[in-house]
């Protein structure tokens, strides 16, 4: 398949509405507290009858400083001793969770996210991985996709080598922007030297893939300034880029109020940054994976997309589609069988549940067959930019045009605008439509109603 994009500013402006990012379907808006521990345990039991392997996610919420733009669930503290009570509970949760799953099920995917996972010290990193290996069936080679999010201010070559020795083989580096004025405005002072030491250390240690995160839309950013950062990172040729649009939602994320909205680039300037960034990455030989992500053409994500085996979950794009996801730690989300389940968000609630000998699940949702079908359609679109109706019909026992009779007319304007090509057998997302894939997926979302979309960020 062709992995290119065409930047059409008029189309983007017309379609740039709010909508879900579809890390899950249904989205977390549909999670409900009527779903609890019994429903989660039943889902785990059902999943053991499958041939699916496991994916593990561990949330480490702590950060030494707070980045004002951040929308993650984090705990800002300079007190490193706070990791001890958290990890003690996490170890107990690992033990409780492991008892629900058949020990023969291999862990094909593992991810540490945050917060700042490298906030914990090297001894704690060793201990966390040791406890995980005691209770779950991890690979001893690089056949698993074991990744970690890294703040270069909290890592060095020594800690990167340790992470590789522990089994990690992929990492994502937070950069955002090298401009000192931007860094001061968002309270993230990070030198180029710190960043490139970690990236160089990853290569020396034999990491299979390194991703770099950039964010556009922050205070004082300009097209020229952002291109200067991009060019510096391009010079070291990371395997992947994630180029995120900053979503300013201060009512939901109070620390965003600490930034001056008047200093943020205008919508036109943001589009100019995105346009220039997209062109620069394509010229450098990267391909567009989708949803802000770019990769080298020989990267496993790019290969999986061409083969239509790519998948997307809470950790982003993945080559391991057929896994049940077990989320551990405060606020983590699990995807087990036909359910989503979320842990308590606050440390106090999380600690109280674990101390009582209970799983920390406090809400979730059991998917109907319609939910699963629509999730499959959305996942195929967001991962492959292509939908073959016969494959969906065969898997779900439906007649596509009849089942989606009400949704399909909403695709007509997108055909006219050149976002998609629609035949009797297939839907193809065009080069111009790929940046607007969220809009296309929204057509198949049964939960989106007028007035509900403002809970989500803009698509561009």
UniProtKB/TrEMBL annotation:
Top-level class of the enzyme under EC nomenclature: oxidoreductase
Cofactor needs: [4Fe-4S] cluster
User: In which pathway does this enzyme or protein participate?
Assistant: Porphyrin-containing compound metabolism; protoporphyrin-IX biosynthesis; protoporphyrinogen-IX from coproporphyrinogen-III (AdoMet route): step 1/1
Instruction: Show the GO MF annotations.
Output: 4 iron, 4 sulfur cluster binding; coproporphyrinogen dehydrogenase activity; coproporphyrinogen oxidase activity; metal ion binding
Localization in the cell: Cytoplasm
Q: What are the coiled-coil residue ranges? A: none
Gene Ontology BP terms: protoporphyrinogen IX biosynthetic process
List, for all copies, the residue spans of the domain called Radical SAM core: 48-292
Q: What is this protein called?
A: Coproporphyrinogen-III oxidase
């Amino acid at each position: 398949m062709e992995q290119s994009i065409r930047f059409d500013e008029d189309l983007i402006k017309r379609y740039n509405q709010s909508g879900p990012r579809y890390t899950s379907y249904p989205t977390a808006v549909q999670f409900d507290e009527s779903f609890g521990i019994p429903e989660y345990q039943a889902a785990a039991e059902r999943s053991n009858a499958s041939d699916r392997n496991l994916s593990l996610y561990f949330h480490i919420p702590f950060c030494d400083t707070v980045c004002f733009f951040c929308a993650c669930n984090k705990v800002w503290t300079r007190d490193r001793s706070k990791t001890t009570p958290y990890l003690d509970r996490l170890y107990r949760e690992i033990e409780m969770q492991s008892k629900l799953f058949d020990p023969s099920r291999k862990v094909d995917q593992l991810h540490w996210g945050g917060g700042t996972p490298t906030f914990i010290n090297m001894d704690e990193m060793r201990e966390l991985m040791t406890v995980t290996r005691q209770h779950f069936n991890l690979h001893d080679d690089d056949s698993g996709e074991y990744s970690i999010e890294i703040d270069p201010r909290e890592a060095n070559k020594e800690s990167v080598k340790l992470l590789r020795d522990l089994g990690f083989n992929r990492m994502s580096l937070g950069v955002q922007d090298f401009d000192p004025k931007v860094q001061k405005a968002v309270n993230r002072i990070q030198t180029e030297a710190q960043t490139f030491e970690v990236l160089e250390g990853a290569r020396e240690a034999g990491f299979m893939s390194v991703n770099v995160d950039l964010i556009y839309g922050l205070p004082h950013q300009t097209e020229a300034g952002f291109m200067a950062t991009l060019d510096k990172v391009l010079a070291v040729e990371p395997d992947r880029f994630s180029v995120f649009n900053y979503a300013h939602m201060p009512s939901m994320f109070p620390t965003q109020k600490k930034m001056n909205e008047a200093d943020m680039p205008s919508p036109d300037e943001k589009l100019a940054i995105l346009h220039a960034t997209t062109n620069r990455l394509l010229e450098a030989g990267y391909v567009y994976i989708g949803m802000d992500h770019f990769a080298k053409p020989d990267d496993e994500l790019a290969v999986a997309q061409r083969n239509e085996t790519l998948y997307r979950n809470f950790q982003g794009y993945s080559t391991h589609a057929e896994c049940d996801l077990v989320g551990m730690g405060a606020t983590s989300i699990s995807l087990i069988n036909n359910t989503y389940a979320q842990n308590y968000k606050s440390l106090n609630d999380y600690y109280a549940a674990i101390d009582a000998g209970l799983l920390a699940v406090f809400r979730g949702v059991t998917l109907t067959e319609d939910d699963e079908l629509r999730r499959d359609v959305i996942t195929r679109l967001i991962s492959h930019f292509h939908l073959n109706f016969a494959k969906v019909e065969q898997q779900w026992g439906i007649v596509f045009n009849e089942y989606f009779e009400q949704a399909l007319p909403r695709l007509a304007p997108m055909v006219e605008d050149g976002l998609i090509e629609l035949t009797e057998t297939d839907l193809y997302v065009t080069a111009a439509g790929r940046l607007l894939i969220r809009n296309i997926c929204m057509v198949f979302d049964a939960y989106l109603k007028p007035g509900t979309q403002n809970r989500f960020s803009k698509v561009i």
